[in-house]
Write a structure and sequence with these properties.
alpha+beta; 257 residues
Length: 257
Amino acid sequence: QLKMQKLFIAALVCSLSVVAIADDCKYTADDGTHFDLSALRDSSTDFTKKTDGGGGGVVFSYAFAVCKNVQKECQNIASPAAEFLTTPIGEGCRVLGSLAKQTWKLIDPSNPKRGVQIKYADGDPCDQSNKRSVTILIECNEQVSGLGEFKSVDGQGSCDYTYNFASPYGCPATSHHAGGYFLLFFVLAALVYLAGGMIYRYKKLGLRGKETIPHLEFWSEVPSLVKDGVQYSISKTKQLVVTVKDKIQNRNQYQAI
């Protein structure tokens, strides 16, 4: 019985992990409007913007990531947003927030379609009583190509920065996310089926070991069925290739005559 409890707990933990992974970059507002920024989180590069520091070779660079830390660290500190300064005599940077201090809310509560904002707090000290923070406005813009466009930065040099970012992912989630939800539902349903079936077969039917797995005969045949399917597909593909080659050769012979 203890072994079955451990199996059930393991399945439950696994299912909760799937939910956590799927939802760690999603937000649902109080009015039910849902945003999914998973695609921005999965970007292979940071979102960056350079601005002229007023001449003299001074350049400010701003970087942020969504639901994770930027790849380029400032002061060897992992952070989701930073400001970098390049001058003819050297370089410097500021940490603008911490991933542990991430909060979400709508840009405009009266108009959820405008987009969503993420605030990262607890950055470098700004003065004796405040630390720097950055608010990333992810505005809904379905005309922007790719993941989005880092348009501008407000509040440079202050305690509170604002990054303005336009993206189709700043728009409320619609039906094009249904595939991800279906996959999540399928995984959770499979885990519930497996855990529930094992408990039933253990307690009600008195089975032990691998016999507690529901439909064991079917699952034991899956590898061989997959193998047969792959072999069949390869065989058909080879036949198709041979047929195409024969047609090409016949056509070339006809043209030569």
